[in-house]
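Proteins fold reproducibly. Next comes an illustrative record:
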Amino acid sequence: MEELYNLIHPKYDDYLRLDQELRIPLRKDNQLSITESKIPFLEGYDISTWSTTFFDKVAQAEFSLINLLYIFEQGINDDEWLVKGKGTVRLLPHFEQKDYFLKFYFDYYVDNFFYKVSSALDVLSHISNRLYNWNMYKPSFKKCWDQKETESTVKLSNEQLYFALREIIEKPIYKDFRRIRNDFTHNHPPSSPTSGVIFYKDKERPVTNLGGEEYRITKSLSGDHIVYTSSGEIKKMVLEVWELLIDIIDVVNEHMR
């Protein structure tokens, strides 16, 4: 087991190597440019505190990113994750003890990475809520820049910032990020194979009460309905989300005034 644990803990040189391969968005003193603007003292202090919190979360996301990239380098054999036979299916057919071990920690850091990025984006909404006096209850990134109900207020406060962030939000990777983050938190995690069991309406079946409504339900189990996202696909998405986060930081530093 000691040999396996050595595979999940990057050495200092590994941290430096992986860190240098990433485009790190940190500014001097880890502060957003808005903290350099002329703002009344108390508001400025509050924004500065939120800015520190923001970069703490970015650094924690980076820590998870470096760890999951290092673990991925050790080899997780799930490119072929489903093999069908006569009336049977085999999941993760090439997995050995090492693969299960690495996958557990890889998934942990992936989940934490998405959580920290999502949390960092929500902190930006708190900064804007203070800066522009929105007096918004429980602001979030989605509520501020991705909902019709707040569009007029947010756009009026800073039109350049609004449209620059909207351009990023319209990218497919942002929508994929929100979907996969939601699945990791509330649904079946994409990094684990689903059961393959499906339920669907069928007029020929007995009536079943489901969610207060009556349906005729058919149950089916088939390898064709098993869903899984391989570690390589998740790694690719994680790196794209990291670039997305950096683009958002660049936009905020350029336009948030």
Remarks:
- The radius of gyration is 22 Å.
- The chain has two domains: 2-193+231-255, 194-227.
- Residues 8 and 238 are 18 Å apart (CA to CA).
